[in-house]
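Journal club side-thread
Mid-discussion, someone asked how the predicted structure for our own chain would compare to the paper's figures. Pasting it here so we can look after the session.
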Amino acid sequence: MRVFVTGASGHLGSAIVPELIAAGHDVTGLARSDTAAATVTALGATALRGDLDDLDGLRKAATDSDGVIHLAFDHGRMASGEWAAAIADDLKVVHASGDYAAATGADLAAVHAFGDALAGTGKPLVGTSGTLTVANLGRPGTEEDAGAPGGRADAENAVIGFAGQGVRSSVVRVPPITHSTLDRHGFARTLIAIAKQAGVAGYPGDGANRWPAGHTLDVAHLYRLALENAPAGTRWHAAGDEGIPTREIAQSIGDHPGLPTASIPGDRLEAHFGFLARVIILDNPTSTLTTRRILGWEPTHPGLIADFANGDYFTAPSPRH
C-alpha cells in the first residue's frame, strides 16, 4: 500500500514509518523543513516538502496514495499556559482562543482536505486524537464514546463522519503519556523536569486520578492495524496502561533520582506544575477492550513504570519547565 503520512519526522512518526515499511508498505512523509525531510528519508520513506496549510498539496498527496495517516499538529504553543488551558477547556466545551485555536482550525482544514480527496474511494484515513477527549466521565472512557465538540475533538469527529462519504476512516486516540527512548519532549519528560526543578515529585490532591500511557512502539503498531483493518467510522485506544494513579507516577519519578514525593494542594498546583496544572488533575481511565477484541492489538513493550526503570528518562536531557 502507498501510504501518505503527515508528521512523519516526529515522535510517533519515527516509529510508525518503520512499522509500515517493515510490513511492506511504501511510505511518503510530509516534511516542513530540510531537517524533517532528512529524517523522513533516513527512516526509509520518501520525503514530500510541504505543510498543513497547503491544502491543495494535501489533497494531491492523498489522491496519489492508497491510504493516509494524519499525525501532524502544530505544537508550537505546547509549553504555554494557553495550550494547557485550551486542553482543559476542550473537555468543558469552552472556546479556546489564540494560537491553539488557530492550530486546531488548521488541523480541521487538513482533515477535510483528506476527506474530500478520499471520498467515495473506500481508502483508509487514520486520524489522531487523544484519550483526554474522554476524560472525567466517572468511568473508563471507551472507544464508543465520542468527544464533546470543541478543539481537537472536532477533527476527530470529522474523520469519523467521513465514513458516511465512502472513506474507511478511523481515529487512534493516543494517551497523554506516550513513552520510549524516542520521546524527547512529551509529558513524561516534562513531569520529570518539573520534579527535578522543584526538588519534589508532586501529584494533585490524593493522587487517585488516573492517566493512561502507551509505549511508542505499541502505539505505532496500532496505527498500522487501523490502516490495514479498521472498519469505517471507528475509534481506537492506544493505552498499554489503561490508568495509572498520578501518585504512582510521581512515586516512580521521585524514586529514580531520590526525590521525595508529595501531594500538591490545589492552591499550589499552578506554581508547581506550571502549564500542566489544569491537565494533571484530570481523571482519564481508558478502556482498550474493543481495540484488543476487534483489531487484535496487544501491547508487547514495557509499561510506563517499567520504562522508567530502564533508566533513559533519567539520563537523557529533559525539556526545561
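Post-session note: The two ends are 42 Å apart (CA to CA).
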